[in-house]
Structure formats: structure tokens, C-alpha cells
Write a structure and sequence with these properties.
alpha/beta, FAD/NAD(P)-binding domain, Enolase-like, domain 1, eight-stranded mixed beta sheet, five-stranded antiparallel beta sheet, 31% helix
Amino acid sequence: MAENVDVVVVGVGVGGEETAGRLALAGLRVVGIESRLVGGECPYYGCIPSKMMIRAGNLIAETRRVEGMAGTSTVQPDWAPVARRIREEATDTWNDKVAVDRLVNKGATIIKDKATITGPSTVRAGDREFEAARGIVIATGTIPAVPPIDGLAGTPFWTNREAIEVETLPASLLVLGGGAIGMELTQVFARFGVDVTVIEGAPEVLAMEEPEAGILAREALERDGVTFRRGAHATKVEYAGDTFTVTLADGAVVSGEKLLVATGRRIATDDLGLEHLGLDPKARRIEVDEHVRAGDRVWAIGDVTGVGVFTHNAMYQADIAVRDILQEPDAPTASYHAMPRVTFTDPEIGAVGLTEQQARDAGLNVRTGLTQIPASTRGWIHKAGNEGFIKLVLDADRGVLVGATSAGPTGGEVLSALAVAVHAAVPVHTLRQMIFAYPTFHRAIGAALAEL
């Protein structure tokens, strides 16, 4: 017989953990089912360890920038303390006991097993089945999307997981994909002395961002010694003698000791039983409404919704789901017009809302303003490592910003002011009357406003 509970959370990653914990604290009977690590990709193989790696690589680069500004310096990169710190953060063996205990202490029941949805309100895990009186929350996240390249399957290629776990760096590395994950890991490994070649099918890296951002990131990584093959498509992969060989569509061949596949991610809903909820099990995403409802007494949050593969979006949607399940009278509804995102390369690239092209494609009357960080007073003071820009995308008919990019030494932090402006539709007239502290990087926002 099915066990009666209030809510079953299928997938206890970042968003699932937030949802299960808050509903349990509210007094509901909550069961969370997770076949992987409770807490999700972010603390073990994503945001946290990758940014620890990036921090280490940036320290190497910053040390080398002392030359010509504050004396002389030498640095000998050593991966050992980086790998050790990552293992300490992930409890050495990527153990999720701390996360499980955290939820149990809040009153949730956690089951480490594969979940199968068996009916409109029932979920099975192992030999137990649960009947959810209030509903089911789907938060299964994503897994790496591996392209069907001839010869790739069966080879010991890396995904982000193997890249995070590595204890001894290879001499050379091939990277398939020039998106955010590929660029971040590429720069880290290059700064630790790895010979890296990036293969990207699009004309420029970071193809989802402003073209200026892609150019900035690529040129920065080229100074770190990275080789790029842009507009190149891999047609065949071979692995022999501890070496990967990738054949490109133009006949060129590139080789490396390791191969990192960073070609995106796909939702982890295989064999979940979505059809029992009236959902398409083959869909690329689970469609949700403004309450993140995917159906009657069904909610979906995080990466499975396809609204940006970001931890902050999972947390945002979790809050909406929790308050909707609890039937709070002032429960918020979702709006993604000001979705922020940061690529943590050096320089750091933050963006919010629409790119210029997306705004034009939406039929808006677009005007842009762009200023270079080195032209600002703080950029001039900073000197070494001061590359970057601020670009604003204006809906001229409404007089408000619909998008912005902040790239530079603190691009992700400067983005916060622009995110507020886009989110709240602050009139540009009001922004122009702001007092921007001097001399700061964010003061360049004023210069970009003037360029509008």
C-alpha cells in the first residue's frame, strides 16, 4: 500500500533541497527522493568547486601582473592544494551525509534511490510507494549532453565531473564547446600550464551572450595560451595510446591527452514516468506557468524547466513553488525578464535580460550604449587585467533598459546595479540622475548611459 504524505519532491538538488526543507519546516509531511547526491550538482561538481578552481587560477594570473606595477614576482603553479581543497569541500569522497542530515533535521524524509512516477499523485522509490496529497515537485536537474560524434561513446572523455575530480593535470586537453562551462574550465587549466585547444562550432565563443563578450573572453584566454578552433565541428573521435584524436569537418586533426565534453546539458527525466502526469517524456523541458505549475498538483523547478541552468533560478522557482503549495495569499509569480548570469572567466562577464540581438528580434526599438572599462578612471588605475566593458540595451519606446552586460575585473558584482534597473524597469532618465561613487568600476555605468 502507498504511504500517505503531503508532498513528494523528486530530485533533491539545490531547488529540491530548498523546497523539501521549507515545506517540512512548515509542518508538511515531505519525502525527498534522490538517486544522486543530495544538494545537487552545484556544491559537488558545479558552482562551488569550479569557482574554487577559478579563484586559484586567478591568483596565479594576478601574481604575474605585479611586474611593471609593484616590483617583480615569480609563481610556480601547483594543482595539489587546489585538488585537496575541493575534496575537503566535497567531504573527500563526494559524500552528501551533511546535506541529508540537514533535511532530516528539518523533518523531511530522504530516500536515496531512483524515483518513478506511477500515477497522477504517486511515486515509487525502491520497494516503497508514496501518495502525495498536495502534489509532486519535479526537480531532477540536468546531466551533460554528449553529442553523437562518431567514436566518442565508450572513450574515457571528461564531463564537468571528471574535470572537477582531477588530481593530476594532463599535459594537454581538448575542449568541445565554447560556452560558459567550457570557457571557465579552459582558463583554469591553461593557467596551471595545460596546453588547451577549444573546438567551438559557432563563429565565436559564448554564443548566447553579446558578441563583444565572446571576443573579450576569447582574446583573454588566447593570452593565457589557449588555442581556438572556431566554426569547427568534430566529426570523429579516436582514443589510442592515452591520446584523444579529434577529426574536424574540414579534415583538420587535433590531439590531446584528455578530452572535455562541454557541449551543454539536457534534462534528467529519463524513465521518470512523466507520462503519468500528462507530460511529454521526450520534451526538452518541462513547461511551467507563472506559479511554476506543470499540471494539476504538479510543480517543476530548476534546470528541468529550461529557464536558465542556474542555481539562482532553482532557488527562485523553489520559493514560488513553496509559497504556492502553502497557498500563501501573497505568493509571488515568476518573471524571467531580468534573469542574471555570470561567466566567471577573467575578465568576469555578467549579463542580465536581453542581448541587443534578442531585443531586436523581439521587435523592440533598440538603442545601445557601450563604454570600455580601461577608459574609466578605475580602469586606468587598475591597469593590468583591466579589460572589459559595459553595454546597455535600451527599449527606446519605453525608456527603460531591457538588457545589459558588465564585463571586467568585477563584472559580476557591477552587474547587480544593472540587474535592479532591468528588473524594476527603472527609467533611464532616473538612472542618469544617479550619483555613481568615484572612482569605482560601476561608475562606468554612467558613461554607458551617456552613450545612449
